[in-house]
Write a sequence for this structure.
């Protein structure tokens, strides 16, 4: 059900909005929510998750990216994350 909602939200975006989600502001969010049968909060959540994933991918792209990212996760510095992971 969650995946179907996410697909509906993405399908309600224009091709330009999919490429550049930064252009999606208030009225566009309302249009996307109405077109996908969801709430604006769900559109916001998807956009936030996308932004977090984009940041994570950029960190992994750099030199030693994966090791650096794993160190952050262990240290509890994971974006939007909860408590640090323990063994």
């Amino acid at each position: 059900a969650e995946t179907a909602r996410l697909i509906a939200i993405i399908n309600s975006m224009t091709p330009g909005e999919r490429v550049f989600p930064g252009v999606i502001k208030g009225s566009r969010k309302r249009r996307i929510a109405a077109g996908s049968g969801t709430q604006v909060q769900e559109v916001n959540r998807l956009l936030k998750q996308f932004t977090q994933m984009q940041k994570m991918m950029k960190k992994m792209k750099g030199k030693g990216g994966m090791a650096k990212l794993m160190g952050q996760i262990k240290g509890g510095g994971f974006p939007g994350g909860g408590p640090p992971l323990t063994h």
Notes: Residues 3 and 72 are 28 Å apart (CA to CA).
